[in-house]
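Weekly structure sync, notes
Attendees: PL (lead), two postdocs, one rotation student
Agenda item 3: pending single-chain targets
PL asked that the sequence for the first pending target be pasted directly into the notes so everyone works from the same version. It is reproduced below exactly as submitted, 122 residues in total.
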Amino acid sequence: QTTVMEAGGGSVPAGGSLRVSCAASGVTRCTYDMSWYRQAPGKEREFVSLLGIAGTTTYADSVKGRFTISTDNAKNTVYLQMNSLKPEDTAMYYCKIASLRGAWWCYAKDPWGQGTLVTVSS
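Predicted structure, written out during the meeting:
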């Protein structure tokens, strides 16, 4: 089965940049979508960005023009480059793998990673 794991969170001042990554394992001969979500303290988890199987990208309005999702297929890793960070971007960032297709092992019991914390100070 496939799993995902985030890395790269940290603390930055407002206006700064950070890149978080999501490494997928067990995805040989699989195709999939990968999304980023975030959850701020006391708030619901919200969609941030999607990288579709065909390479299409989608962003939440709140991050458009500031965040960029990309992939390194050789490393089975998806990145979220976050620029011009604002205090309201402070949250736990989660990646989610979806629409798995391919070999028999291309499924995920739990499509979510454990999250990586991003803190933006004002």
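Discussion points:
- Strands lie at 3-7, 10-13, 18-25, 30-39, 46-51, 57-59, 67-72, 77-82, 91-102, 116-121.
- The chain has a mean pLDDT of 96.
Action: rotation student to compare against the earlier draft before next sync.
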